[in-house]
Every structure is written in C-alpha cells, then in structure tokens.
Amino acid sequence: MPDFHLFRIRVVSPHQATLWLPSSPDASPPVKKAPPAPLPHNATPSNAILKALEASPESHSKRFGKWHIGGLTPLSDSGYYFKLGRITKRIEPQWDHIRRDFVDVEKAPAPYTHVLLDLETQVCGLAFNRAITQTARTLGNRLAMLLNNAILPLELHGLEFQVTEVSNPDDFITQLKEAYTIKRFSFTALRPNFPHPSDLASAAEEYARDLDARHVRLYATGKSLNAELIERQTREAVDRGGAVSARIQAHPNAKPGTIKPDRNPVILGDSDVETERQKRDTFARIKRRYEQLRRKTGDE
After folding, report:
1. What is the pLDDT of residues 181-191, one digit of tens each?
2. 294 in helix, strand or coil?
3. How far is residue 271's CA from residue 78's CA, in Å, rounded to a whole number?
4. CA-CA distance, 213 to 16, in Å (whole number)?
C-alpha cells in the first residue's frame, strides 16, 4: 500500500506589468507593458485547477521525458482522483522466431501513481512511487509542470500553478510555546493565491505581486512577542508555502538563538486506492489530516 504525501496547490494571479528600461540615454522613454487582463469575478482556484486537470495536460522534454495526467474521476463535490505518470523508453533483447535471431525491441512502459485532490482546500495526496521519481517533492514539481502546461480557457490565461509540500510545524510551535521569550519572528509571503482573505499575510502577498517579486519577508522584533499570534501566523505562512524563523530565549539564563522548522512532510501510510470506497476513505483521511494541521497541534 502506498504512502500519500500531502501537497498544496496554489493558483497565483498573473504577474504585474513590468518596465522596459532603455539601454542608453538617447533611447526612448521607458514603456510599460500592457497589464494582463483582469480575472473574471467567478474565477476561483478550484475552478482553475479543475479546468487544468480536465484538459489532460502533458509535458514533453528531453530533460524530464513525457509526463501525463489522466483518469480524472470525481469522488464527491470537491474530491477528485486522477493518475500522474510518465512514459519511458527502454531496449529489451528478445528472440525473433521468424528471423531465428536475437533482436533489440524498443518498449515504452508508463509507470504512474495515484493522486487524490480536495478542491475546497486545494490539498492533494500524492502516492509516492519510486519507479517514477526518487523523491515525493520531485513528484510535486512534475504535477506543477503539468498543470502549467494545461490549455486553459482564455479568461484563465496567465495563471501560475505552484505545488508545495505540506509541512507539519508542530515541533517548531512547541519550541515557541516553551520559550522564556520570543525576541524576533519572521515569515515570507509568496505571491497571492486568489481570492484570499484580508489579513497581514495577504497584504504582504499583494506587495510581493505589486513588486513583481517572488516573495517578501516580514520581521517582528521585541522583548517578548505574543506566542499565540506567532503560532497562528506560522500555520498561515507554512500553509501558504512560506518560510518562518524565530529568535528565542529558552530560559532566563540562556543566550538567544534562532530556530527554524525542520522539513517535516505530512505522510499518510497504509492507504489503499484499489476500489472506489478505498479512494473515498483515503480522500477523507487526507482532508481530515490537513484540517487538523490548520486548526491545532494533534495527531490523526
């Protein structure tokens, strides 16, 4: 039975217009490129992801080979199952009875793996298959590559799909709670996932978008920062694919030190998807585990 690694799919709004800078003082004044067309009001990450999957995207390159998405099947109002795989080539020696000789025959095996997706939260479980990639994170990168290769409706052109590994920040948060004081806290904000709530992280994401930056980093410093608010912000930042760090003083006589979350991927073991019922059961486990991570520390 495969292990499912949890990933989050983010749908990033089109880049802001960029400036063309003249190469010499005699060149024409800077010209601003036309901004991308505004997204329709009814556009949502769920709709964009579903449209990309329904297009059965594929990717062909010398570096990564031929990759495909297929077998898209609904499990519930927000749940979907599909397969992700690649076509490989290999030469196999065989015996040709007609020629009465050994010949080399080209084969094209297509190993694949299983994916369960919750459109409501844009969280998916990727079943790790070493016959396809050496790491689960690489599998997530290939999923992003395929989604970005999908032929989307005109009104969704310009969107970028990002697939980030869901990490469990509980150990990091425990260190924050047990610390004598928190001297500094920082987090990065990526470009915004549309639509998004109005909060500090969203404002930072919009700033990153307006700057045409990959991310921005925010810092907070003080004698003793609010651990409860930092826990909330840590979960938000990690959920959105950002990085966090803190400088804490473990006890009154200790020197302050910087801590960062360890890479702690969320994995569901003993998960089978051979039947429709098993697919739905595993999908429910994935959704429940993600909701637990977003709410509070706890195990399944």
Report:
1. 999 988 887 77
2. helix
3. 20
4. 10
The upper half-sphere exposure of residue 260, i.e. CA atoms within 13 Å in the direction of its Cβ, equals 8
Using CA atoms, how far apart are residues 247 and 260, in angstroms rounded to an integer?
Answer: 9
pLDDT at residue 5, as a whole number: 95
The number of residues making up the chain comes to 300
- Assign residue 278 a region (left: φ > 0; alpha: ψ between -120 and 50; beta: otherwise): alpha
DSSP assignment letter at 297: S
SS3 31: strand
- Residue 156, Cα to own-chain centre: how many angstroms? 19
- Coil, strand or helix: which one is 188? strand
pLDDT confidence bin for 92, thresholds 50/70/90: confident
Of 149, 160, 173, residue with least CA distance to 239? 173
Q: Residue 10 in 3-state DSSP? A: strand
How far apart (Å, rounded) are the C-alpha atoms in residues 87 and 5? 22
Q: With CA atoms as reference, report the closest residue to 147 among 192, 117, 167.
A: 117
